[in-house]
Amino acid sequence: MKILEVKNLRKSFDHKSVHRDISFHLSRGETIGLLGKSGTGKSVLLRSLIGLETIDAGEIIYQGQRIDDLTEEDLYPIRTKISYSFQNGALFDSDSIFDNLAFPLREHSNLSEHEIEVLVKKTLSSFNLDGIEELKPMDLSGGMQKRVGLARSIILKPDVILYDEPTAGLDPLNVEMVIQLMKELKRQNFSGIFVTHDIPAAKKICDRMIIIKDGEIGFNDTVEAFEKSNDPFVKNFLMS
Amino acid sequence: MKNNFQKVFLTIGEICYFIRDVSRCLFTKPFYFHRFIEQCLVIGAGSLSLSIAIGLVTGLVMTLQFGYGLAKFGGILYVPAIVSLSIVRELAPIFTSLLVAGRVGSSISAEMSAMNVTQQIDALRALGTSPIRILVIPRLIACVLTLPLLATLAAFMGFIGGQLIALTEFDLPAGFYLNKVLQTIKINDITGSLIKCSIFGAIIVILACYRGFKTKDGTKGVGNASTWVVVTSSISILVSDFFLTKLLILIFH
Question: Each residue of B20-63: pLDDT tens digit?
Fold first, then answer.
């Protein structure tokens, strides 16, 4: 069952075309790896999916509802269902870690402060981040900030999680930890789109791989097909 | 490539769109009351000492200048009226607003810019929250309400400063000075001054937040944004003061 669909998406910046014709869909419970060389607009595509970037043409459909033509105010409820995990965590640096995680709950749920406290602690614990509630983001390492960012993006139990390079710049131990977290989220039936240059990590997590090439979809198939592909472009990608 | 002329018009257009977006959020829920109180403390209470200093010094200097100037023509008795009217109508609102533009405008701009370049504003949007509602509206209302209070305090301190100099330098009794001030200052003067301050407060916050939301180029951009906000809001305050004064004269006189 399609949960998110992109049809003939086009996007350019100052007359420089980034996406010429992008079409794909995401099924419920599925995780897609979104690959491509640097500058091919993977993050721009991810941001476009929740309206952080406006698109020039095409359609973005979430659960049968077209969302690309919604106003910023109308997009806010959608963004609680399609969450975005930023590359650097994008934590609110003047707030504590507790307040960072409590923020979406205070904004979009009717939970009491006690219930919020319980849920925040439980979520942090599931990400192996116990005991950091009172710290500020600057007190944490880059890897921990990414995990807190990931925890904040799932705390409202969204349908879709958009991961923007969650393993970039991390040491192997932290990479493995993030992979295990993403696998666990997948087991809990979260759908996801995983933008990455880390092909081994993508192969471990994803059901399908999409490669952006020259502003279009260059490859869109299962991980098995990705590995066995004879396409020189895909082979080149795998070699890298 | 856009030339400077086009850039100026583009910026004015963007500011108009920003004001439209702010206006839409201004009268609709949710309103972040605790953030408004927080900003009242930051903007209002944080600027108290500046306001006291600028008011007192203005009163001292103006009375000295007018006192010695008018004494030559035997017009010393007019000093309380002239000084108090100048302070209430122009000097207190303008000086206080310029100081707040420097202190608060640059601070808001730096904070917004830093949040923008570290994607915290995008994170707010991605979490389904309007950055305008949570960041701009509390600051706007706080500045619109506290700036008139700060200017009132500055004017009050100006009277005290003026009275002090009038007494020590020109032997004008404190009772006479106070009586002349109360006879001269009309409610319209105070109302006009408060209206001006509120508008200046709105100008400072709108420009600071607009520029903060538009900042690019990392830390260099943050610095440039602060400078732009102080310069632009100071010029905007001075230019709009002329038109506001003309308008208020038409309304009240």
Answer: 999 999 988 889 999 999 999 999 888 999 999 999 999 999 99
Cβ separation B120–A52 shorter than 8 A: no
Chain segment A158-170, per-residue pLDDT in tens:
999 999 998 887 8
In angstroms, the CA B158 to CA B167 distance is: 14
Chain A residues near residue B129 by CB distance under 8 angstroms:
76, 103, 107
Q: Of the candidates A223, A217, A225, which has an alpha carbon nearest to the alpha carbon of residue A7?
A: A217
SS3 A27: strand
> Dihedral of CA A237/A143/A146/A122: which sign?
positive
Residue range A2-85+158-239, CATH number: 3.40.50.300
Contact A76 B126 (CB under 8 A): no
Judge whether B193 and B156 are in contact, CB under 8 Å.
no
Angle at alpha carbon of residue B45, lines to B41 and B49, rounded to 5°: 160
- Check: pTM over 0.95? Answer yes or no: no
Integer Cα distance of B103 and B234 in angstroms: 12
Question: ipTM of the assembly?
Answer: 0.90
Chain A residue at shortest CA distance from B32: A107
| B130: closest CA of chain A, how far (Å) | 7
Output b/e per residue, B47-79; b: 16+ Cβ within 10 A: beebbbebbbebbbbbbbebbeebeeeeebeeb
Q: B117, B3 in Cβ contact below 8 A?
A: no
How many CA atoms lie within 13 Å of B118's alpha carbon, on the beta-carbon side?
Answer: 19
- Cα–Cα distance measured from residue A152 to residue A95, given in angstroms and rounded to the nearest whole number: 13
Picking from B123, B129, B130, the nearest residue to A86 by CB comes out as B123
What is the residue extent of each domain of chain B? 33-252
Report CA torsion sign: A139, A145, A149, A152. negative
| Residue A53: closest C-alpha in chain B | B122
